[in-house]
Amino acid sequence: MSKSIFYHAGCPVCVSAEHDLINLIGNDNVQIVHIGEETSKIAEAENAGVKSVPALVTPNGNVLHINFGASIEDVKG
Amino acid sequence: MSKSIFYHAGCPVCVSAEHDLINLIGNDNVQIVHIGEETSKIAEAENAGVKSVPALVTPNGNVLHINFGASIEDVKG
């Protein structure tokens, strides 16, 4: 199975919740991408269907938008 | 570890994504509650901090609101 990818932008409010989710799925099964720092990954995230962060893209290609941290447009800004 | 609880209201759009998440966490680690059918669980969900469904309440008590299906108020409707 390919990994899930967790896109985030360092939203401090969500850190605890994010770690919880990653622990549930298993650290080894998730690639974590901070699009605020790795801005080159923003296009990749958008192509995957990510509209806001934090979001989890599952191996099946489903996008789960979790809570609401920031829109992709805001991260670009 | 206690189980996570996944609250939903049968949102058809989200079914595939929900199943994905549940598969990632592991079916045995998640209790699934359909608050549209089990309306007696609505108060329990609200007490846990659930504002909208689908949502996952983790064993640590964090609430992850996933995408946006319906507000709790709408389910009460």
From TrEMBL, chains A, B:
<protein>
    <submittedName>
        <fullName>Thioredoxin family protein</fullName>
    </submittedName>
</protein>
<dbReference type="InterPro" id="IPR036249">
    <property type="entry name" value="Thioredoxin-like_sf"/>
</dbReference>
